[in-house]
Each structure stands twice: as structure tokens, then as C-alpha cells.
Amino acid sequence: MEITFDGGKVITAHSQGHVIKTDQPISGGGGNTAPSPFELFLASIGTCAGIYVKSFCDNRNIPADNIKIIQKNEFSEETGLPVNITLDIQLPHDFPEKYKTSVISVAELCKVKKSIANPPVFKVTSSTK
Length: 129
Prior knowledge:
Layout: E1 2-5, E2 11-15, E3 18-22, H1 37-59, E4 68-75, E5 82-90, H2 100-107, H3 111-117
Antiparallel strand pairs: 1-2, 2-3, 4-5
Helix pairs in contact: 1-2
């Protein structure tokens, strides 16, 4: 993955042919043209759980069109970091009862959530080109 600086507060990740732009809100000196890196991080939690739920439904021919995941984030007033993240999987009334517990279990398999629960070791270096 390559990270580029693209003017103003726009920082872009280039990964496997994808371009992922971030920016800062206007209050942070940016143009608010894209999510902030922190917003993108938080969104990756819910969207990761979502792909597991969607795959579960696809494998059982269950329509996922009316399923929503509502993510609620609670932050520490001291650090601004998340202290509680809740994912509420809202299922339609006709969702098969026998799969309601299973859909929670598959959302728990999310690799982003697992990465947060078992954080990697970070190493930051610099070099000249």
C-alpha cells in the first residue's frame, strides 16, 4: 500500500488498484471532501461485519436488501478514543428465526474487529528516496 499527499489535507491510500481518499473536516483545516482517516477506520468495522452477514445470507439464498447494521460509537471524553462500539444488526420481520443467532456469530468473525481485539505491533520508520 502506498500513501500519497495530494494537496491540502487530502491523503490517499493506493491499494491493489483502489484509490481511497481521506480529508479532514473544515474545522480541522481540511476541505471535508472525503471521510477523515478516523471515520474510515470506524466505517471499516461496520462494513467488515456487513460483508460477513451478506455472505452468510447469500450462501443461504436469504435476501439481504432489508438488513441494516447500525453502528454506535461511544468515546472517552479524555482521549477521544472509542470505548464502546455496538453493532445492531437490524433484520426484517421475515428473516428466518433459526438464523438470528448465527448472523450475530458471523458478524463477530470480522477481521477488522479481530485486529482491534488482537492489535498488531506497529513499527514506523523513515528513509530517503
